[in-house]
Amino acid sequence: MMVIMFGPWHLSKSLIKHSLTSHYFETDLVNLHYYKYGNGKQSMLCFHGFGMHGKQFRILEDDLGGKYTFYGFDLFFHKETKLKNNSIANVKAGLSKKHLADLIAAFCTHENIDRFSVIGYSMGTHFATSLVEEMGGRIDEYIAIAPTAIEPGNMVRFVSKNKIGNRLFNKVLMSEKAIINLIDAAKFMGVMDATGRDILYKEICTDELRFNMYATFTYLRFLETDEARFIKSLEDNHIKAFFIFGKRDKMFPLSIAKDFLPKLNNPNVTVLDEGHEMINPKIVPILAGLLL
Q1: With CB atoms counted within 10 Å of each terminal CB, which end of the chain scores lower, N or C?
Q2: Which residues contact 93 (CB under 8 A, 6 or more apart)?
Q3: For the chain, what are the domain ranges?
């Protein structure tokens, strides 16, 4: 396994963005909002991190927009994407990998997409990884940045998949003070860094946002990586896989993958001199170097 390390560097001013359109794709499940940008012949489906939106990867347009047309989704319980049934019962029923794959297959038919690549950041890597498992025969490249899908951690599993943990999580989220104390405790114990804490702070300031946090963890709990199936799909379908970690990322450092990465056939692993928040202008030339 080859690991590439990058440190600080000087960046030139970004070019002016030249295309961005907003769209909806409606099914019986969801009214899915997405952005489309870039004009390349290859398609790249983009899955953002928690608390973000479908424009998170737009910083890639200037450098990679000639190769790819990007489709950046607002994921479930984020921004403009709305489930048709937003009830607690439906949230608890969850989203299966098959339902996700069916949605993306229908979306691809809608946009006349045959083959595609996937890129995911943090929470978004669960979507990208699930699609490799379910639709690997149509995927060319898989890019996982801060790949929580490799090892989301015991706390995430407890609040999302354990019935008692999920009830406690719901109860805590009903109190803004309680969830702030919990986040501060996680930061104090080194479970997350200041950037992660600040992102979560922004996601709990209203009742609606606290519900969205609960719903996100609960609804997506079935998008947990099946290692054997994922690896088999990468290898059988000759998917180019790229894993990018932050050297200073306390939540999901390279060490979470110490048992997983050796199982892959010569994985492409990059470690940046960054914390968890890696979707910034510094990553653009790195991705350009990997993908062009």
Answers
A1: C
A2: none
A3: 2-7+18-153+223-291
For the stretch 165-178, pLDDT in tens is 888 878 777 777 77
End-to-end CA distance of the chain: 21
Q: Determine the Cα–Cα distance for residues 276 and 194; give it in Å rounded to an integer.
A: 9
Question: What per-residue confidence (pLDDT) applies to 3?
Answer: 64
Contacts of 11 (CB under 8 A, 6+ apart): 281, 282, 284, 285
What residues does 24 pair with on adjacent strands? 33
Domain 2-7+18-153+223-291: CATH class, spelled out: alpha beta
Question: Is pLDDT of 239 > 80?
Answer: yes
How much is the pTM?
Answer: 0.86
Assigned token pair, 12: 């030139």
